[in-house]
Amino acid sequence: MNPEALKHWRKAERERLIAARLALTQAQLESARGKIDRHIERAFPGLARAAIALCWPIKNEYDARHIAHSLRERGARTALPVVVAPRQPLVFREWHPGITLAKGVMDIPYPVDSEEITPDAVLLPMNGWDAQGFRLGYGGGFFDRTLASLAKKPVTIGVTYELARMDTIHPQPWDIPLDYVVTERGVYRRDPEGLAFLGAPEPAGPGSLASPVCYADEDYFRGKS
Predict the structure, then answer these.
(1) From CA 55, how far away is CA 110, in angstroms rounded?
(2) Cα separation of 220 and 224, whole Å?
């Protein structure tokens, strides 16, 4: 597929997938969010002591603000991305309720003057995702550009719904695959041959400190490079 054809194809696919997401009812969204929250908390206990970047939800995206609140209560720091200039990497500024926000690109809120932090992990919404772990975003390339620019690459956890799954996004050299994908179904990990479905993590048993299905603990997030 030539570059111009790919651009038009991705635009059409993006519009199709966003329309499908916007058709979800509030009850469906809340049900999916609750499942995704539980999968993340059980599978990635290390997030409770990490610096985590998330995105303000738009257009019925998964709303990570709920799990961010839970993780902050256990010691995590949370941040939102900030667009500083067109075609430049994003920066991440600390965010929690009480920090001043302004409206930016696509009217998405961002922190105005809080501390800039380097995230250990990113909860990254997706319009679409494919079997190799590549993400279809909004076409600006901000996150791929940002991840490529960081000296220490954070753990990337794509968060979305099963309805957003695609056969392929026809990845290009600049597209960076995710480390994990979490949907209402469960957790996927990127292996050399593509995404592997790990299942829906079970709650911790009596006397356990973490889920028996622990995919990434605190040391993993701190040590990722």
Answers:
(1) 9
(2) 6
